[in-house]
Every structure is written in structure tokens, then in C-alpha cells.
Amino acid sequence: MRNVYLFLCFLMLLFTACQKNETVSLSQNGVSAADLAKIDALGFNSDRVHKIEGGFVVEGDIFLSHEDLQQPEMLLLNAATFREEHYRTPNIVTGTPRPIRVFVNPAIPLPVQVSVDSALIRYNSLGLTISFIRVTSPADINIQPLSTTAAIFGVSGFPTGGNPFPTIQLNLPVLTTWVQPTVTTSIAHLIGHAIGFLHTDQMSPSFSCSGAAIPDNIPASPSILIPGTPSGPSAGSWMLTCISNGINRPFTPLDITALNFVY
Known about the structure:
The protein is of the alpha/beta class. It has a single domain, classed as 3-Layer(aba) Sandwich (Collagenase (Catalytic Domain)), CATH 3.40.390. The chain contains seven helices and eight strands. It has a five-stranded mixed beta sheet with strand order 5-4-6-8-7, with helices on one face. A three-stranded antiparallel beta sheet has the order 1-2-3. A hairpin with a 2-residue loop joins β1 (about 50) and β2.
């Protein structure tokens, strides 16, 4: 009986150890704890991470590839001291002044294409050193449908090699139920990422999202603050993290300051 008892205790200990190991190796939405740690190390909030083809969606709409997580020196935001001010990534579009050609997949419904045009007009009206033009074949930025069940309006990324992020994906089941000004703001926001802008409320997404603030838990490091923009919340900014139907965020004076400083 003693041997049987010891054997049963051994099985229970083994089962408990396996349970604990599974808990530390897997995290939200099937994303491993190791990948979440890498996302944290890049300066992004690792809350609400979604796994999609080729990588991950972080902070609701930013695409990070598997390669990005392996090459942190290419993307490191040094974001620990960021607050809610306007700020950008280390990578921006270079070779300015220059036009940026935008191709919209014909599968995108016409009302959403109208919102794309309206978003481009918002940028072009500022007289920046970058301008946007619609073209009929694949180009600098390609706007495509997104296949996902995640509750997000779209996905974008950051510039590489001095060029804008090449693909913006739109979650059509969400956007086609929203009013046109909200869709325009959402597309302008995704373009903002593609040319190098981060979320205005990255350090405290509760400013525009429901729920408590999300700390990034990164050691202190220098930031890339855009001069002339505040260190506190910037109400109405086009780069706030969250948006919902009925909200319209044309560029605020502080947004325009940030855009003119960078471009």
C-alpha cells in the first residue's frame, strides 16, 4: 500500500508541474509568454495582442511581424518615458518632398473607398513634404481587406527603409457598419502609423479606451518627443488608440504641429 500511495503522490506532483508549465508558456489569444515579453521589450503594450498570419496585432491596429520580434534594434521605440504626448517611431518616410502612391484593392466597397479619398484629402490639405495620390496598380501603400474575427477596425505598420509601411488592411465587417466620418478617421489613423506615428495615448490607453491604464513595465530610456506637443493627454487627436462608431477626429492644432514637425 505504501508503494501505491507514493506512486499516486508522484503522479499528482507530475500533473501539477505540467499545469504550471502550461500556464507560464501560453498566454492570451494563444500568444506565447515569450512573444509577449518581446512585444513588451519593443515598447508596446502587450495587452490585447492578437495573432494573425505573419505576426501579431498590438494596441488594436499595429502589425508586428515575427521578424520584427527577432530584430528589436530595427524597431525599438524606447517608449518607457512616453506619456500621452505626440510621438513617433525612430523610422519615418525619407527622401522628402515626395508623393506617396496609394492603391486600393477593388474588393474594398465604394463607400469605404470614398473614406480613403477623404483621409488622403485631410493630409494633402496640410501642404506637408509628403503628399498622397490614388493609383490603379500596387504602389507604396496598398489598402486591402483584412480577414479576422478580432474586434479591430484595421491593421497597419511602421516605415522601413525610408518608405511607408506597404500594406494597410481594413476589417470590412466592422467599417461597413460605421458612419463615413468615423471610417475616414480610422483610415487616416492607419496611414498615420504607416508614416511613423504612434498612439497619442500609448502609455495610458484608458484615455480613449475603456478599462484601466496599461503600464508597459519597461526600464527608463530616452523617448522621441515631438517638440511643440504636450506631455499630457491630447484630446481629439487622430492617433488616439481607440475609436467607436460616431466619432470623428479631424486633425487638431496639436496634430498639425506634430505632422508639420516631422513632414
